[in-house]
Automatic annotation (TrEMBL), chains A, B:
Regions that span the bilayer: none
Keywords: DNA-binding, Transcription, Transcription regulation
Residue ranges of DNA binding: 29-48
Organism: Kitasatospora purpeofusca
InterPro entries: Homeodomain-like_sf, HTH_TetR, Tet_transcr_reg_TetR-rel_C_sf, TetR_C
Annotated ranges, domain HTH tetR-type: 6-66
Gene3D superfamilies reported for this sequence: Homeodomain-like, Tetracycline Repressor, domain 2
Domain of life: Bacteria
Name of this protein: TetR/AcrR family transcriptional regulator
Keyword DNA-binding: yes
Length: 191, 191
DNA sequence: CTGATTTTAGACCTCCGGTTCAAGAATTCG
DNA sequence: CGAATTCTTGAACCGGAGGTCTAAAATCAG
């Protein structure tokens, strides 16, 4: 009963995610969201409550899709180091090949909202922790497979790689590709 | 002739820098600046022209003081690795010991303004490049002194260390001290 | 068809950020 | 001392951001 929605909520959340990712949370106005989604402001508020709530859903979506991407690439064929390199290179390439360099939404959220929005910051932090877990798991898998030394502390190494990745994604805003590739190579030389 | 300024412009710029650093560019309102500096809004505009121009001066000041700090710490006694560790630890500690974790202003500027403010982004980028130069110079000094191997490519290593530093300063927003120290140790194990 | 129910679109409202202004205050010069 | 000059400040202006509301439109049950 009642009039049916003229849009797919999941699609709108995905479009909102792109907009927040590109322009930042504060930098995205309700008018921007309406334009990006093709849904009028009033309808967005009716369906999602507020800009902040829509952002929560966008950030959750980002976490899920990012996690799936990482799992997919890391589980490909080859050694741990090869897979991790492939993943890092992919992220750098995605950032540099897009129309705008916008880094990582989780990281952007931490930078923009830490200290001002506890919940969003925690969600973004969890996304980073999840990434560390995936890296650690892949390194341990490499140790079982024999392509990573037993002496490597997988947890610490994963932590370090996440730091490198964070740095890469900041630097991808202004540095060029060869520089970023050199950073990846240097970071991976450590284990 | 004319009425003399009732404040020291350099002091006001320093106070503005602190405010921009803590709250971000967009997050800092003229009212915030007036409160932080003790100078009325109108006077700020009279003296500095606009929020944006004041920000330029604040960012320049940040670059100069940051550069001096780095030079000071890096030129202390000890090996290249010891001095770089001391510098990284100092930055992490400064961030974690402050009332709010606010990372690095240059990096925050890149994250917030890349793609929207070409000049500010370039200035921030130059600050990072300057840091890389300082790191490379210190590594080369270590090579001459014999505490760093001749086979190390100072430029690449410096680039990598800057990436680690960038990552550290993002992660310092939400991760705790032991984690950050482990990252420093792992990064420095590479040369 | 009718009534109940939900969505829609955009007008509307309020608040605040960035900026300008007008009037007064402090100083130097003649 | 008066004039010229520069600084100070609170008030006022303007636009846009975030959010609300309403009348119309679309659907379905009966």
């Amino acid at each position: 009963m009642g009039r049916p929605k003229s849009f797919e909520p999941d699609v709108v959340v995905a479009q909102a995610m792109e907009t927040f990712w590109t322009k930042g949370y504060a930098g995205t106005s309700p008018a921007d969201l309406a334009e990006a989604t093709g849904v009028a402001k009033g309808s967005l508020y009716h369906s999602f409550g507020s800009k902040r709530e829509l952002f929560t859903r966008a950030l959750d979506l980002y976490g899920r899709t990012g996690s799936e991407l990482a799992e997919g690439v890391l589980s490909g064929p080859g050694t741990a180091k090869e897979r991790i390199r492939a993943y890092f290179v992919l992220l750098v390439d995605m950032d540099l090949d897009g129309p705008v360099r916008r880094g990582c939404l989780a990281q952007n959220t931490v930078e923009e909202l830490a200290g001002r929005d506890e919940e969003a910051t925690r969600t973004a932090h969890r996304i980073e922790e999840r990434m560390i877990e995936l890296l650690a798991a892949r390194i341990e898998q490499g140790q079982r497979a024999g392509d990573v030394g037993r002496d490597v502390d997988a947890g610490t190494q994963a932590l370090f790689l996440q730091a490198t990745l964070s740095g890469l994604r900041v630097m991808a805003r202004t540095f060029d590709r060869p520089v970023l590739y050199r950073i990846i190579d240097t970071a991976l030389a450590g284990f």
